[in-house]
Structures are given as structure tokens and as C-alpha cells.
Amino acid sequence: MLRAASAMLGVLLLLGCSGKGPKGKVVFQSNRDGNFEIYSIHDDGANLQRLTNSPSYDVSPSWSPDGSRILFASDREGNWDIYSMQSTGEDVKRLTFPPGANTAPSWASGGTKVLFVSTRDAVNGELYMMNADGSNIERLTRDSTVKDSPVMTEDGGLLVFAINDRMGYFIASLRLSDKYVAGLTPSSYNAASPRISPDGSLILFSASHAGHTGIYTMTLAGENVKDITPPNEDCRTPSWRGSAREILYSKNRGLYSRSLDTQKEVTISTKGDSAPDWVSF
Predict the structure, then answer these.
(1) Spatial distance between the Cα atoms of 90 and 53, rounded to a whole number of angstroms
(2) Are strands 69-74 and 81-86 parallel, antiparallel or unpaired?
(3) Residue 37: CA atoms inside 13 Å, Cβ hemisphere, count?
(4) Mean pLDDT, range 145-150, rounded to an integer
(5) Which DSSP string do the residues of 190-213 spell out, in sequence order?
């Protein structure tokens, strides 16, 4: 009897896990209350929380790998700078200071480093990395292109980011060992917002191509490019949701999740929300 009950419990747990996937929380930017602030919400649409309250813009949130802190960019003190706060919105810390605008933060090296874009040394905006407390700022790129949305592989060896070459945006990568920048998409795609999959095998990005703005995947080498969203839908600012088989994105002023296996779409919110980032809990 005990063995039968244990077996049944195991089946129920397996079905529950495989049917719903991992539970998580989404942090995002929204102008639902008049100007852009940072919010969080469970990925089933429950428990909405406003995390910032500033008359200025608070944008581009990014979860730390352990979900304890959130990076974001803000002009709340008269200059665009990078800030860090607890997942509850408390303990806000300013990490960068003038000169230059500092934007597009993301975590790297397991949450011990922060990537960002800055105009402190060049008007076009270069890629930089610093410690999580804002110390030891290191310049990573030195050229004349305009850069945005840097992310890094888990091993710290490869940077992926967007470049504006005046003809449009394209996705590029930089291997830190040799400083070689490789273009991964043509500028005609107008590609933006790259994200590396949790298993390190794919790049997720948005692109205005083939008559609509959709979400695409490709390998780290820029191969096997696939449009993974329906035609005639304006989908942007993608993010991974727990695996390389589920994604988040914004469209029509709302946030949505989608399974790449079943193509089932789930609405999370619809109030002027964008730039989602997911963490498990």
C-alpha cells in the first residue's frame, strides 16, 4: 500500500511539473501609471507589485540569477545611470555616475558583474563591465558603432549585443579572448534585444523583417535563424522563461508567454508593459 501511494505521488508530481513548467516571477517596465516605472508580477498574472516610484523614467530591469536584486536604468538624478535594488524595491543603490549616460544593464558572471552601455568615453556608447557594487569599471569595446542590450554567456567568454550601423540594427558577438566582433544578422533585419538561452545554445531576439516585427532564434554563430512568432503580430523585447523552449515578449502594450513546442500563448498583463525578464521561485 505504501509503495502504491508513493508511486501515485510520484506520477502526480511528474504530471504537475511537466504540465505547467517552472513557476516564476517577471520584472518589467510599464507606463501604466503615467511614466515608466519598474513592476513585478507572477508569470500567471497574479501578485502585481510596483517596485519604483519616481517622476523620472525607470526602465530596462534585469533579475540577478538568484532573484534577490534587480538592475535598472534611470534618469531620476539628472543623468542616465545604473541602479540596483532588492526584489521588493527596497535598498536602492546607484552604481554609476557621470560623465556620460549609462544604460542597458544586465547581470554577468553569476551575478557578480554588471554589463552596461556608456557614453563616458565615446559619444557612440561603448560596452563596459563592473562589479555588482559599481566598482572596477572596465571598458570592453573601442570602435565607432552605437551599441545596445549587451548580454554574456555563463562562462563569460562571449558577449552578444545589438549594433546600430545607421542602416538599421543588427546582432553581433564579441569573444573577449581575441576582441573579435562578428556580425550575426544583416542590418536589414533591424534586429534588437538579444538574449542567450539558459543552456547557452541559442540567441533570442526581435527583428523587423518579412513584413512584421517578430521574435527569432538562432545559434551563437548566427546560423539556423527561425521566426518563432505568428505573422502579422508586432512582438518585441523577448526573454527566456525557464528553458530554451518557452519565451516571454511584449505586444499590444502587454506581456505574453509562449511555448515553442505547443505554440500556446498565455496573457500575463495588458497595461502598457514591456521589457520582461523572468526568474524562478
Answers:
(1) 11
(2) antiparallel
(3) 16
(4) 96
(5) -EEEEEE-TTSSEEEEEEEETTEE
Residue 185: CB partners within 8 Å, gap ≥ 6? 170, 171, 191, 205, 207, 218, 222, 225
Dist. CA 240–CA 263, nearest whole Å: 14
What is the DSSP track for 52-121? Answer: ---SS-EEEEEE-TTSSEEEEEE-TTSS-EEEEEETTS-S-EE---SSS-EEEEEEEGGGTEEEEEE-SS
Alpha-carbon gap, residue 134 to 83, rounded angstroms: 9
End-to-end, the C-alpha distance of the chain in Å comes to 34
Q: Give 244's contacts (C-beta < 8 A, 6+ positions apart).
A: 197, 198, 199, 201, 202, 260
Q: What is the pLDDT of residues 114-136, one digit of tens each?
A: 999 999 999 999 999 999 999 99
